[in-house]
Amino acid sequence: MHLEQYLKTYGSIIWRIRGTSMLPLLRQNTDLVTVIANDGSRYRKYDIVLYSITAETGRRLILHRVVKVLPDSYVIRGDNCYINETGITDQDILGRLTEIDRKGHIRSADDISFKAYAVIWTAIFPLRKIVMKARQKASKNPSLKRFYRRLKGRD
């Protein structure tokens, strides 16, 4: 049974995430996340939602954060991404993240520290975008790459 079908059938699902788009909040191959199925209500800014898109490689499921709520859609972005995804509608969203289990320590998405993290992380996005783009350029330039490695103490 596919994850999407399981969620619709049972109302919630727990699975180990793959990918790095939600770093530093979610860690690949470490964190278990609980997602509850879409109950038809609108999502709020800072919610982490599971949605599906159709890409060249087929249908993909993505777990990212709502950064803006529009009247008929959402603007969504991964915490470790700097490109917004637009045009995501309620019909695309399968559910909302409710818990993260990291090595037996469970954090609720309704916890005040979880919400504070979301507000702060989203607010510093413009600064993070500059840093991410600089790192991307540095990774393509050998001299900048060496400079960056020295700053990080790896050389």
Summarize the structure.
With 155 residues, the chain is α+β, with helices and mostly antiparallel strands. It has four helices and eight strands; from the N terminus they run H-E-E-E-E-E-E-E-E-H-H-H.
What does this structure look like?
The chain is of the alpha+beta class. It has two domains: 3-123, Umud Fragment, subunit A, CATH 2.10.109.10; 126-155, no CATH class. Helix content is 30%, strand content 35%. It has four helices and eight strands. The protein has helices spanning 3-10, 112-123, 125-140, 142-151, and strands at residues 12-16, 31-37, 48-55, 58-69, 74-77, 85-88, 93-102, 105-108. Strands 1, 2, 3, 4, 5, 6, 7 and 8 form an eight-stranded antiparallel sheet that branches. Strand 4 and strand 5 (74-77) form a beta hairpin. The longest helix has 16 residues, at 125-140.
Q: Kindly estimate the percentage of residues that lie in beta strands according to DSSP.
A: 25-35%
Overall mean pLDDT: 90
What is the H-and-E element order? Answer: HEEEEEEEEHHH
Text of the CATH class of the largest domain = Mainly Beta
Overall number of structural domains: 2
Largest sheet: 8 strands, antiparallel
Task: Assign an overall shape.
Answer: globular
Low-confidence stretches: none
Q: Give the fraction of residues assigned to helices.
A: 25-40%
